[in-house]
What does this fold into?
Amino acid sequence: MKQMQIYAFDMNCIGHINHGMWTHPRDRSLHYTDLDYWTDLARTAERGKLDGVFLADIVGVYDVYKGSPAPVIESGAQIPVNDPVIPISAMAYVTRHLGFGVTVNTTYEPPFLLARRMSTLDHLTKGRIGWNIVTGYLDSAARSMGFDKLPEHDARYDAAEEYLEILYKLWEGSWDDGAVLRDRERGLFANASKVRAVSHEGKYYRMEGIHLAEPSPQRTPLLFQAGASARGQDFAARHAECVFIASPTPQAARPTVDALRRKASEVGRGADALRVLNLVSIVVGRTEREAQDKLEDYRRHASVEASLAHYSASTGVDFSKYGLDDPIEQTSTNANQSALSAITGQAAKPVTLRDIIDQMVLGSRMKPIVGSPEQVADRLQAWVEQGDIDGFNLARTVAPESLRDFVDLVVPVLQERGLFKADYAEGPLRKKLFGGDGRLPSQHPAARFRR
It folds into this structure.
């Protein structure tokens, strides 16, 4: 049995996945503006030997539900939301091994500046940074950034392909190995003949310049991606190393996992080039009864309204226009195509608004795993065996209680079964996860830009 990869999934905001939990008296997410909140999270995650903390992000607001942002503003559902990059340096400072994944949107961030920011983080974390590549799905974000509307779904991925090429040229090809000398005696910091400007002239971008940062431990950060549409899978197969999905069951996940591994093989990277991680929420107690009592306690704070507003934005469908027993209709939107397909084209039977609400046990559209440490470990093991996934993104419920419970109760059981590492490997994040020297392998498309 392969060992799982596990990440604490969070966002620099009050309400992330399980909406309404911030109202629980033991929840501390209202302190998201305090640096201690984030450093404590990092220490807990590293104490549990988790592979990393993964920070999501959006640059718009959810305004599809009822045609207004009011429901999410009132409930704190991913608004206000602060920059996810800023806390990482502090979290890295108080940890030694913990990895970090951070979401940055390719549609709105110039590649030249992102290249420097990621190299800086890779230096400061000593090679523990990863980048979650997203292209966005909110028209509100596009309007905020000066566009009339969000570019079409596939066009966003076409632009992202070009975006990645620029970054690979900067990270892998602008500075040669051995370019940096740091020769105090001769006053020679770097060999200029081994540093060069890179250029790009394409459909979406044009640039010419020298990468502003010297080579970092990984050069290219570990690459995460979360697109599950057909176009997103193609993109992930070419570029991603870790892919996040959000399937409700192992059986539902398996076709996506199989498709991703097959496509990675077809482009020459190999099926084992990808680590596929599924989103889960976990409520664990020392006994099954304690876990069920905790769930009932949490449920009293869940916000279905906020969850519907979040899901409406994800799918591009205003659920407030449906009656409880009206089936959700197949439609074409420019939002998250995999989220919409899950309740329309891919659904085994027509899905109604009541069906969706029934899933929203803790203010999100996915039912939590609930039970004793052994029962939770059984469920996670079944996910790996039946879904062929490689690990999990743990969404917080009541923070930081849910992460502490997982670390203290579930991790020891997983370790006893050999399903989770007993300690960290040494080296950069990519080396910890894949072995090698911490650099992208030669089969990855970035490698062709090396000199």
Q: What stands out?
A: Residues 5-288+367-449 form a domain with the TIM Barrel fold (CATH 3.20.20.30). The mean pLDDT is 94. The CA atoms of residues 58 and 136 lie 8 Å apart. The radius of gyration is 22 Å.
